[in-house]
Amino acid sequence: MSKELLEFLAEEVRKGHRPNNTFRTSSFIDAAKMISEKFHTTCIADHVENHMRTVRITWGVISQVRGRSGFGWDDNVKMYLNKKIDMYDEISIVAGKDIARGNFSKTFGDIQTNSSGQPSTIEVEPTKSDSATSSEPRYHKKRSRAEEEEGDLRHISTQLGEVVSALKKFLDNQLDVEKLYGEIMKMDDVDEAVRVAAFDHLVEREMLARAFLTKSEALRKL
After folding, report:
1. First and final CA of the chain: distance in angstroms?
2. Neighbours of 167 (CB within 10 A)
3. Which end of the chain is more exposed for a tag (fewer CB within 10 A), N or C?
4. Other CB atoms within 10 Å distance of the CB of residue 215
5. Structural contact between residues 71 and 61, judged by C-beta atoms closer than 8 angstroms
6. Cβ neighbourhood burial of 4 (10 Å; 0-12, 13-18, 19+)
C-alpha cells in the first residue's frame, strides 16, 4: 500500500501539483480515493498526510546518512552499508525538496516512534459490505491483499530503524574533536605552539587521540 501511495504522490509532483514544495489538499484527497478504491478500504486525506510525515522522517534520516563522510553511502545504487533502501527515488521526489527547504526537517533524535520502536504507519479502516453473506469471501481476499501491500510500509519502517541505529552507532564512535582540543589546552605548563602541534597530530591519528583522552593528566605528559 505504501508503494502505491508513494508512486501516486511522486506522479503528482511530476505533474506540478506541489507548488512551493507543499502538496495541495486535492492531491491528498485523490491519493486517499485511489487507496480506498484499490484496496477496498476507507482511507481519507488525513491518513495520507500522516503517512507523509513518516516519509519526510525517512528522507530526513537518509539525508543525514548521505551527509556523513565515511558512512558508506553509495548514491548510484541508493545503499548504505550494503543495505538497499526501497522506493528511494519515489521518497526523494515526494519529500526531498521539503527537507532541502528546511520544512519538516528532523534529526534522528527527533523521530517519534510507536510502542514497537518503529515510525508510525498509515492507518486505514476496512469498509463494510452491504451484503455480508455474498461479499464476505471477496472482502477477506481483498483485505489480505491490502495487508500484504501494507507490508511495504512496514519494510520501509524497518529499514528506517536500521538507518537510525547505524547512524547512532556511527556518531557514537566519532572522535570528539572539541573535547580533545579542550583537554590539550588545559596543559598550561606546555608551550602553546607545542599544544597546537600536538592537537593537529592527534586529530590526524584518531587511535592515538582516543588513547590520549583515556589517559590520566599525568600520563598524558609522558
Report:
1. 63
2. 19
3. C
4. 12
5. no
6. middle
Whole-number Å distance between alpha carbons of 222 and 218: 7
pTM above 0.85, yes or no: no
d(CA 107, CA 209): 28
Cell numbers describing residue 189: 605548563
pLDDT tens digit sequence for 50-77: 888 888 887 777 777 666 544 555 555 4
Residues 6+ apart with CB under 8 A from 48: 5, 9, 28, 31, 32, 35, 122
- At 61, give phi and psi (nearest 5°): -70, -45
Average pLDDT over residues 20-24: 85
Which neighbouring-strand residues pair with 79? 74, 84
C-alpha cell at 159: 529499514
Q: Which three cell numbers stand for residue 206?
A: 584518531
